[in-house]
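Deliverable D5.2: sample structural annotation.
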Amino acid sequence: MGGLMDVLIPRNSKIPNKAGRQYTTQKDGQSSMRISVFQGERDLVKDNRNLATFNLTGIPGMPAGLPKVEVNFMIDADGILKVTATELRSGVAQSIEVTPKYGLTDEQMEQMLMDSIEHAKDDIQTRALVEAQTEATQLFDTVSKFLDKNSALLNEDEINETKEQLGILKVTIDSSDKNLIQTETEKLNELTRPYAERLMDVALKDAMKGKKIL
């Protein structure tokens, strides 16, 4: 989310080699995930080379963040890269092989390295901004859904204050001011933190109805 590059196997790693990382969904009920494999030195995927793309389908419908998708990279001594994605709760899996024909010439590698050095400062700033925007967007969506489903737990002043902060954050997300986005995100976090505790208390009370604690 946000188009950021995630490095699993760094440049100059010895082969054979393997690496893995877990990811999750960003939308409720999301049943598929696109796995894109890139090669390069830049922080944004758009500035790197796409090697392969495949879809992991059949992910059970769950709230965003619950599915656990493990992506594993395995590169053998012949330079063949096998990428496997597995949803750990259900076991659904998909994989793809990338052959060495995607290799780079010495000149291409040198150019990619020079580009990464030349744009290093801008890339760092862009990554920080995108990460802040992504976190703010996820919080915005979570709080909006909470208001839709659990407004009965809040009084009128709390509802109005939350909606006001949601509106401020929505406008702020589109800005290029990382610090402002983080500030408004934290304000919404602080405002809504008691709501989550209140929801948990209600859930526990409902779960204990008709039960005695000895």
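Annotation notes: DSSP finds four helices and six strands in the chain. The longest strand covers residues 49-57.
The annotation will be released with the project's public dataset once the embargo ends.
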